[in-house]
Specification:
By secondary structure, the protein is an alpha+beta fold. The protein is 18% helix and 31% strand. The protein contains two helices and four strands, in the order βββαβα.
């Protein structure tokens, strides 16, 4: 697992075309901006469904801004 510390305004680049920006830190919450191609599925961990649950549903949604608890950031970054 890769664990990184970032300040407001700093970015992480995943692969060639995914950029994660730390927009705001307030208490134990952070706001992330995620720039990714439309075909990249981005969803909060607690909302993630297995591929069988996605059959027949549109799974191609892009979120430009995602607000999560700071404790969730570690899990997101470890999957990147």
């Amino acid at each position: 697992m890769l664990v990184l510390s970032r300040k407001e305004g700093e970015r992480l680049i995943v692969g060639d075309n995914i950029i994660i920006t730390v927009n705001r830190i307030a208490g134990n919450r952070i706001t992330l901006g995620i720039e990714a191609p439309r075909d990249v599925r981005i969803v909060r961990g607690e909302l993630d469904k297995t591929p069988s649950e996605l059959d027949g549903q549109t799974a191609s949604r892009q979120q430009s801004l995602l607000e999560i608890d700071a404790s969730d950031l570690q899990g997101i970054l470890s999957r990147a």
